[in-house]
Amino acid sequence: MRESETLDFSHAPAIALGRVLAQNIVGDRNYPPFDRSIRDGFAVRAQDAAQPGARLRIIGESRAGVAFDGSLGAGECIRIFTGAPIPRGANAVVMQEFAHIEEGFAVLDQPVLPSQNYVMAGAESRVGERVIARGTRLGFAELAMAAQVGHTSVEVTCRPRVAILTTGDEIVPADQKPGPFQIRNSNAFSLSALVNMAGGEAVILDNAPDDIAQLRAHILRGLEADILVLSGGVSVGQYDFVEEVLREQGAEFFFDSVALRPGKPAVFAWCKGKPVFGLPGNPISTMITFELFVRPAIEFLSGRPPRPVIYLKAKLAHPVRERSPLTHFLPARITQTNGDPVVETLLWEGSGDIGAVVKGNCFLVVHASKLELEAGEWVDVLHRRGAL
Ligand code: AMP
Ligand code: MG
Q1: Average pLDDT over residues 117-125
Q2: What angle do CA 243, 289, 330 make, to 5 degrees?
Q3: Ligand 1, atom 15: nearest CA belongs to which residue?
Q4: Number of other CB atoms surrounding residue 102 within 10 Å
Q5: SS3 200
Q6: Is 166 in the pocket of ligand 1 (CB under 6 A)?
Q7: CA 279 – CA 289 distance, rounded (Å)
Q8: Which atom of ligand 1 is nearest the CA belonging to 210?
Q9: 23 lines ligand 1 (CB under 6 A)
Q10: Which protein residue has the closest C-alpha to ligand 1 atom 10?
Q11: Distances from the Cα of 271 to the Cαs of 200, 277, 379, in angstroms?
């Protein structure tokens, strides 16, 4: 895997979204570069403006981009606007709401303190200071910062290539008309999107039928990528061959089932030097296990520091009872109109029901350690905004 590449996003910032910095970004100048007013008003010497009713002669103007060429003396002020440089001699800005103009003088309605209403040069960051750390994922704020310090061409990590290999005799490409017992390949689409959102580059392979020889050939092709993600064929059915083929190829398994619903049959192995995830084929199982297991691997290989899965907290709208001692993820909707966020689960027909996820915006997490939840309880929610 190539480690990094140069990305120039000067003319299309959005191409950098989600990329991970392979370098630190440092400031090329102090920020702000000059003492900068953050209000419209009057730049004054605070010692002249300590009393309400002070009258200061207006001797000029400073506006954004055009500085006042001179310095303030005793009893003087200048008209100043947001973003404008503070003139020499001034050390405070009086907001225009707290002053009025009388015959060339600013009359202050309120006193002002030194350093009020401006930001000193270099107060936000100094030349040479690191403003974005290596390993940071570029979002809108990071792009703004990169632009501010003039770094619009930077080293970013190469995105890990993630092979997506769906399996199953019943699966047909989504743009083909399925026979009566065939199923369109929706997992290739959700996985491709999830890989992309996690910072990887999806490589979609042809679906593999439930046949050992053909599955082997597809898996070997998939192992050319940096990560292989399979869907389907990991349960205990008679036609679930994924584990068998991986074992035959010398895979070392780290887990071959997880205490989750949906998602229980998920496997993780290391095969021919590559991480391999075998996700269950049911569409919601695929999504949940991707989010919990594959996303962190993609992030790690993208050069990002590891981070935990983050749950939101919401108040449960109704009681929930689960029986199996597993951690459950239930399609749900979180809303917040007035007051606390509230989560309600959606009716669903189990882990094949994509519609329930489409209607919702999150998953309620019912932990194995507490399977009975009461209405009004604060509960964990896995939000799918920007991720799942
Ligand atoms: P499996 O994990 O192979 O036993 O598949 C479980 C269920 O998920 C079956 O009903 C499959 O038809 C369905 N399924 C498997 N792969 C896909 C896929 N790529 N797209 C949509 N549904 C799938
Ligand atoms: Mg199958």
Answers
A1: 97
A2: 130
A3: 281
A4: 9
A5: coil
A6: yes
A7: 7
A8: 3
A9: no
A10: 282
A11: 19, 10, 38
Is the separation of the CB atoms in 134 and 304 below 8 Å? no
H or E stretch at 315: strand 312-316
Mean pLDDT of 68-87: 97
Ligand nearest to the CA of residue 282, numbered in listed order: 1
Helix (H, G, I), strand (E, B) or coil at 81: coil
Share of the chain above pLDDT 70, in %: 98
Residue nearest to atom 17 of ligand 1 (CA): 281
Cα separation, 129 vs 26, in Å, equals 5
Ligand minimally distant from the alpha carbon of residue 284: 1
Q: What's the confidence (pLDDT) of residue 306?
A: 83
Place of tokens 């074992």: 247
Asked whether the predicted pLDDT for residue 308 surpasses 90, the reply is no
Residue ranges of the alpha helices (H) in the chain? Answer: 140-148, 187-198, 212-222, 242-248, 283-289, 295-301, 354-359
Residue 320 burial (CB count, 10 A) = 21
Are the C-beta atoms of residues 91 and 74 closer than 8 Å to each other? no
**Token reading at 132:** 């974005």
Atom of ligand 1 lying closest to residue 282 CA: 8
What's the CA-to-centroid distance between 324 and ligand 1, angstroms?
22
pTM: 0.92
- Residue of 267, 274, 51, 266 whose CA lies nearest to 161: 274
CA angle 68, 87, 47 (to 5 degrees): 135
Which residue's entry shows tokens 């695929």? 286
Say what the pLDDT of residue 215 is: 98
pLDDT tens digits, residue range 228-251?
999 999 999 999 999 999 999 999
Question: Does residue 388 carry a pLDDT above 80?
Answer: no
Tell me the C-alpha distance between 388 and 357, whole Å.
10
Express each pLDDT in 175-228 by its tens digit.
999 999 999 999 999 999 999 999 999 999 999 999 999 999 999 999 999 999
Best substitution site from 187, 239, 287 to test ligand 1's pocket, by max atoms within 8 Å of Cβ?
Answer: 187
Amino acid at 323: R
- With a 6 Å cutoff on the Cβ, whether 278 touches ligand 1 is no
